[in-house]
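Model it.
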Amino acid sequence: MELIDQHTKRIMEGCKERARDAGLSFSDETLEYIVSNRDLLELTPKNMIPTMYDYWVHDVEVMRERGRYELYPDNPFETVINTRPAISFYNDNNPDWLNVMIFYHVLAHIDFFQNNLYFRHTWDFDFTAQALADKRLIAQLRSRYGRWVDYVIEFSLSIDNLVDYHGLLGDLHRPRQIKASSRIDYYFDIFLQQIRKVRTREYLDEIDRYNACVREAGELCEQAFFADTVKKYPEFEALYQKHVASRPKRDDDLMLFLLEHSEFLNREENKWMQSVLHVVRNTSLYFQPQIRTKIMNEGWASYWHEELFLTDDRIRGHEINFARVNAFVTALPRVGLNPYAIGLRLFRHIEEKADRGQLDWDYQKLRDRHQRAGFDRNTGRGKETIFLVRENLSDFLFINQFVDQDFIDRYRLFVSEKRLNEERMVWEYRVGSRRAEDYRRMLLDSLYHPPRIRIDASSSDNGTLKLVHVFEGRPLVQEYIHGTMIGIEYLWGGPVELETHEMAPAPPSRSGEPAEPKWIRVRYRMQQRQLKREELDAA
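Modeled.
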């Protein structure tokens, strides 16, 4: 691994100038390294972070990648690390014309990292330096505690998706002037609505009383407001203090809850485990936005490498080579999903519709196909719109808002179905649906969607940690429940209960049609590494 030479660096600086002229925004300092295929294979298990802490699973994945590479030799053209300064790696056998294309792709990634609001908590964070410090810490702990460090890493990784990433973003993006205290939040959100169950008129009167108090008393409003409230509801203060004592800071962040409330982890001899949990949790929070913006990020980079490469006079004579490589990267498969292809086409679709004013309600309400096809207000707002999309959305919002029937029809997209041909004993694929709703649902189902596990601290007793899976129509993966709950029990230092939903066995249907799924509530209890399952009432 070595820095690119001065000739290649000059190519990169030229790409930066052209990218900025086109509207991209990124920091001046970047680092570019040339790496071999072997380097890329070894970096893959560590998410391309060379300073990531060592873990035995990484070694196993390196062996697997080497075996796969021997059978199917291919490697990514580049990879980018969202850190300060941004670092990118390039294959050691790229020609200059290909580097121009790749540099534009990389610069668009950096622009996305440094401007998309879902990356807000990483904007001033040198992750590679922090990862190096974490690596040294893990190495020191491993030299002292041996294999127990790997056990704690494994237990922590089993719940590293149970971090309150959106809570972190909410704290960062909430305007200072509208921050309300937890007492105000409790009064309006819980006390009035759930405990007192006041009528709508009375609830609105309380909002008016609070707003009037803010106008009259300013910073002293809360004290004056609750002085009158306690006279009306004498039980309020006691209920609020009970709520504060029983409720964790973030009841969706299991890792943070264990760090703050586990008596086992807070024993003097076990405090080193907290350091390991902090490393795993912070690493997970760093990667959360990259996981949640994969389609947008790759689509944005593909859009700009195509847009800027074709107008770059330095690549004349290599248009055919570019077309071949670009088609390989952004091809739209008939079966399966290519995030580069979907993201690129959706950004172009948004740009074209915004240029013609077709994102406005006047267009959306039209039902006549010919009127829709001829609708063109020539607003010229396409570029402005895609930059706003790049700044504010994640994959979920990107897909849910912009994948419409026009997009499906233009690119001839469809949802495929697989069925067994019993005569020939082969699987056959066919077009299942060309409706935008079905294709949108397929894309949304493919996105990262960790379970929401709520900590029920108010009902925990006898040292038992009670967890509730907020059921959203998707059951937990059965094969992971046992191992994950063993890890949670170890980190908690006591029994753990998990309440979730599972599909009940359906009786055979006389009509031959699949029966409607029926869900039942179940409770798992892990105690002394023994898992018990209990069925509760039907959902």
